[in-house]
Write a structure and sequence with these properties.
flat; 14-stranded mixed sheet; 361 residues; alpha+beta; single chain
Length: 361
């Protein structure tokens, strides 16, 4: 365990606590409404050269134990794996000094824009629009719990140049003779493809390839929350975390870059296909070199909400900036079965109509 001092934000009006107000640039007291503007940043978000990674002061993720926050308001100690939390005794926001975390310091943060009311509206809209969901799901109008959490993400920039080999396919047509169902000889045009070897080079610059830095939540659901308006991010300031939660990363930047390269591959392959041209393409091999690689750690806003249905708790995640919702949902077997039966009925009717038409002809 790592004892750390935690920054708190007492209210200048009533002495309670200040929290970052989503959609604003200020801290707000939930009791008396007092507001305190967040100071304008004195620096810009910077990209870190990947070659400088070895020189950064950090500890391996596996060697970092839990943090022990010491609340400056009530002196209580809170043990957590989060870099921003709330005191379990007095509820005061607790934000760690990033330099004391043992990890790479975040460069930027995308502040929350949606408050609890907006998230409730988004979840209601999501539950009521699920196809093949039980009808009772539309009656779910409130989330059982909501937790505003900043999730760590790595972003990577890179200039790439790729050598490829493959084949270029060009369509041509030949006339084919066949006998139809009535015994008559007919002709038709049949497509063929002529293949020739192809090779070449393509180049592409990638900007802000995003990779989740935490494995606590499903990566597929996090990807589904995209796109993220990263240009609206601001340089990291702890005030934006006050009253919210923030996870520390458990994916090292080296592992993140491996994932980023995998995310670049299909884009590069598509570039190769366009470069090959023709009507069809086959890409046999691609050899990519990455240059001028940079990275940074960003904190992105996610509301983690749960709702109760049929005696079970379901989890959804809401993009705290755009309101995009993705998550778990129940399925109605009855509705799915009825849809399948309806589809089969339509097919049967079409087949019957075609059969009757042929018989009359």
């Amino acid at each position: 365990m790592i004892p750390v001092a935690a920054t708190t934000y007492p209210c200048g009006g009533c002495g309670a606590r200040l929290e970052f107000a989503p959609g604003e640039s200020s801290l707000r007291c939930p009791y008396c409404g007092f507001r305190q503007e967040i100071a304008a940043p004195t620096r810009q978000i910077r990209e870190i050269a990947y070659t400088d990674l070895a020189t950064l002061p950090r500890k391996p993720v596996g060697s970092i134990g839990a943090y022990v926050f010491v609340c400056q308001r009530c002196a209580a100690r809170t043990e957590t794996n989060e870099t921003a939390s709330v005191c379990q005794f007095c509820g005061a926001p607790l934000v760690i000094d990033p330099a004391a975390s043992g990890q790479i310091v975040p460069e930027g943060v995308l502040p929350f824009a949606l408050d609890r009311a907006a998230v409730r509206t988004a979840v209601r809209g999501w539950t009521s629009s699920r196809w093949f969901a039980p009808s009772a799901l539309k009656k779910v109008t409130e989330a059982e719990s909501m937790k505003s959490t900043y999730l760590p993400h790595w972003t990577y920039d890179a200039r790439t140049r790729s050598q490829y080999t493959g084949q270029r396919g060009v369509h041509y047509y030949v006339t084919e003779t066949y006998t139809d169902g009535d015994g008559n000889r007919q002709t038709r045009q049949v497509q063929r493809t002529r293949w020739t070897p192809a090779h070449g080079a393509v180049a592409r610059d990638f900007d802000d390839v995003l990779v989740p830095g935490s494995t606590v939540l499903p990566g597929k659901q996090l990807d589904d929350l995209a796109p993220w308006p990263l240009p609206e991010s601001v340089p990291y300031q702890p005030e934006f975390l006050a009253g919210h939660f923030a996870l520390r990363y458990d994916v090292e930047p080296e592992a993140g870059f491996t994932e980023a390269r995998d995310r670049m591959k299909p884009v590069i392959t598509e570039d190769c296909r366009r470069d090959i041209g023709g009507d069809e393409q086959q890409v046999t091999s691609v050899d990519t070199r990455h240059h001028d690689v940079t990275f940074k750690l960003m904190l992105l806003p996610v509301w983690i909400a749960t709702y109760l249905h049929a005696g079970r708790t379901w989890q959804v995640m809401v993009n705290g900036r755009t309101g995009e919702v993705h998550g778990e949902r129940p399925w109605s077997r009855v509705k799915i079965a009825l849809a399948v039966l309806a589809a089969l009925l339509v097919i049967a009717v079409i087949v019957s109509v075609v059969a009757v038409s042929r018989h009359r002809a």
